[in-house]
Amino acid sequence: MGRKRYFTMTEQSDIVSTTEHDTTVLLLDYLASLTPSTPSPASQIGSFLSQGADLLHRDSTTGTTPLHIAARSGNTEAVTVLLGAGHPWNVVDNTGKSVGEVAKEAGWDELYEELVEEGVRVEFVLGVLEKAQTDDETETPADASSQTSSPNPLPDTLKSRPQNLTESTTLSTSYLSSSLTYTADTLTDTSSNAVMMSWETPLMILHTTSLFSRRAFPTSEFHILNVGFGLGIVDSIIQSHKPTTHTIIEAHPDVYKKMIADGWDKKEGVEVIFSKWQDALENGLLTRTYDAIFFDTFGENYDDLHSFHEHLPNLLTDESSTYSFFNGLAGTNQFFHDVACRMVELDLAEMGIETEWVEVDVGKLGDNVWQGMRRKYWSLNGYRLPVCRLVA
Ligand SMILES: C[S@@+](CC[C@H](N)C(=O)[O-])C[C@H]1O[C@@H](n2cnc3c(N)ncnc32)[C@H](O)[C@@H]1O
Questions:
Q1: CB within 6 Å of ligand 1 — which residues?
Q2: Which end of the chain is least crowded, N or C, by CB within 10 Å?
């Protein structure tokens, strides 16, 4: 289910002939000499590549690639030629810097936007190819040796609440069988991965406000669904709005135990469904439609979010119903985050759902927020809060 794109630039052959090496140096020097107005670099770059220059070269000290150099130069044609020749859009150097960030830092805003578009385009194409491959495999059990793998990796960071495992299903399984620890401010798993942290409370308040913003309540009924209880922050805020019904889906046994201990199943109008959302939907456990839906799980990736979104047209009551989700997609890299936001918006639009982004200033989270945590899942200053509705 998760996208398996694990090509890394370091996998290229270390054995490069002297001629290839020399031509690669010439290509790199040429790219470094470009300015935004250098005319027609395509033919020169094409000539180096046809002479054996290594498109996938990676500097042994800095990890810089030809695309980083071209992006810094601001020459759009050079960037386009390299991408067209098969240079991955999502490489990072040894400091984790993407080509988009390089272009942005150098002040090439238009080029940055084009790189975002390229990322979206490539990911959609690969998504379609992968789906076709999966469908083929489903129809005819394939000989493993004949299976091809996509050349580009979806960045490991293109996930909400990122984990070191790229397979969401693997992570989900190991996560759901691991024990969790609650403190006043955090919910963590056995590997010190933060499942939920209280610094998100202001964001959860804003999400909830957006969910209730269109209601005619208390003159009419209001039915709300939340997927993923975590610290119960969003559910506590939802309760303060006194909805008619409040359905919560939660999959982890430790979280469920805490919910029961805290009496969530006894609250008026609250229904707790102890299940993965995937199973709840498959087993028909959701028997009504909702005026508002919030989605915030853990250990799942873009494909899981996409799968949930496919159910939205059947889950939302009508055009005045609101959907939102925790937008932690690639939350530690602005370039990948921008690609992910564009992808999710286009995906939702295809399902007949429009997205409005509310920009929220998160500011700098101090390092102490992450003390004891295995990794940061958020480091951007601005949070793009999605408010989604069925197109009227
Ligand atoms: C980030 S927390 C939710 C935080 C919550 N929004 C809050 O305000 O505290 C994610 C929750 O989703 C649950 N979860 C993860 N995968 C799930 C799935 N497939 N179905 C249902 N719940 C899931 C986790 O156990 C965890 O409790």
A1: 195-196, 204, 227-234, 249-252, 255, 276-278, 296-300
A2: C
- Percent of the chain having pLDDT more than 90? 74
Residue 2 has pLDDT above 60, yes or no: no
The pLDDT of residue 283 is above 80: yes
Domain boundary at 116, 140, 158, which?
116
Residue 141 has pLDDT above 50, yes or no: no
Burial string for 314-347 (b: 16+ CB within 10 Å, else e) reads ebbbeeebbbbbbbbbbbbbbbbbbbbbbbbbeb
Mutate to test the pocket of ligand 1, among 1, 275, 298 (most ligand atoms within 8 A of CB): 298
pLDDT at 385: 98
Q: In what order do the strands lie in the sheet with 245-250?
A: 270-274, 245-250, 223-227, 292-295, 322-325, 382-390, 353-361
Interval between CA 229 and ligand 1 midpoint (Å): 5
- Residue 29 belongs to domain spanning: 9-116
Q: Which pLDDT does position 127 carry in this prediction?
A: 75
Domain shared by 269 and 361, yes or no: yes
Residue from 161, 170, 168 nearest 188 by CA: 161
* Distance from Cα 268 to the centre of ligand 1, integer Å: 22
* The ligand 1 atom nearest the CA atom of 200: 8
First to last CA, the chain: 32
pTM for the model stands at: 0.86
Looking at ligand 1, which atom is closest to the CA of residue 276? Answer: 20
Atom of ligand 1 nearest to the CA of 249: 21
The pLDDT value given to residue 29 = 97
pLDDT digits (tens, 9 = 90+) for 233-276: 999 999 999 999 999 999 999 999 999 999 999 999 999 999 99
CATH number of the domain encompassing residue 187: 3.40.50.150
Total number of domains in the chain = 2
